[in-house]
Amino acid sequence: MRFASLGSGSRGNATLIEVGETRVLLDCGFSCAELEKRLACLQLVPHDLDAVLVSHEHADHISGVARLSRRFGIPVWMTAGTEAVHRGGALADWRCFSGHAPFEIGDVQVAPYPVPHDAREPCQFVFSDGAIRFGVLTDAGSVTAHMVRALSGVDALLLECNHDPRMLANGPYPRSLQERVGGAYGHLSNQQAAEMLEQIDTDRLQHLVAAHVSEKNNCVTLVRQALSSAMLRLPCELSVAQQDSCGAWYAIR
User: Residue 163 gets which letter from DSSP?
Assistant: First the structure.
């Protein structure tokens, strides 16, 4: 099992998960042309994708999904709530899932879990091959007990470190947007991410990747500082997903 971030941030998100012969793209906030460029960095093309899985309807996660689906005939998995409000047009093949029930896409076992975010029916996910588990948590404004249970014991984790509260308060965003981002249904701060790491079982963790890092309200140095205490007890190093480039594969063993 392995995964790669094709880009992460407010200008577009996409993560690739591969188990056996199955490749699932989680979200696509990029144009088809841009996605093709990023897939090419991993020696892949869109026809290598077996499905697109959508976390919620915000543009930085879904803007390229419908066109990608139509152009390459790729099925798209999204909740009924997300399907009802997405604005990308028709999908080649819509597969509905519940945010409370696990399902399978080829060799990939998917366990969705609901998160507090200002979208219609937002979910995040734990992916598995039956033995190894890869957790993803972005686009959540607060940490719930259910999220902690879902992510405890994962072997790899892509974790939102969206903003530094002080930078957000003193940054360029208007007050209304500051309140949205920093609110209970917005995005996790560096400090909230650190607190999350203190609550979950991290004994098996092989990879920790900070994601959705704000270009205007955060920086890598502050991310590393906020997570430094938690990292002292983790059996892995911290990586940071980039906005403008595709990352390398992370193999989970």
Answer: B
* Helices (H), ranges, 54-95: 59-62, 65-72, 80-85
pLDDT tens digit sequence for 187-222: 999 999 999 999 999 999 999 999 999 999 999 999
The model's pTM: 0.97
116 CB-contact burial (10 Å; exposed 0-12 / middle 13-18 / buried 19+): middle
H or E segment and range at residue 230: helix 220-231
- The residue assigned the tokens 């090419």 is 40
Query: Which pLDDT does position 111 carry in this prediction?
Result: 98
Contacts 24+ apart (CB under 8 A), 12-16: 12/60, 12/63, 12/64, 12/243, 13/60, 13/61, 13/138, 13/211, 13/212, 14/38, 15/136, 15/158, 16/42, 16/44
Pairwise CA distance, residues 74 & 32, whole Å? 13
- Roughly what angle, to the nearest 10 degrees, separates helices 220-231 and 190-199? 20
User: What pLDDT score does 2 carry?
Assistant: 98
Predicted confidence at residue 104, as pLDDT, reads 98
- Residue-wise pLDDT for 97-151, tens only, equals 999 999 999 999 999 999 999 999 999 999 999 999 999 999 999 999 999 999 9
Enumerate the domain spans of the chain: 2-242
Q: What is the mean pLDDT of the chain?
A: 97
Tell me how far apart the alpha carbons of residues 242 and 210 are, in angstroms, rounded to a whole number: 9
Which among 155, 37, 51, 67 is positioned nearest to 103, based on CA atoms?
51
Q: What is the pLDDT of residue 90?
A: 94
- Say if domain 2-242 classifies as CATH 3.60.15.10: yes
Q: Do the beta carbons of residue 123 and residue 79 sit within 8 Å?
A: yes
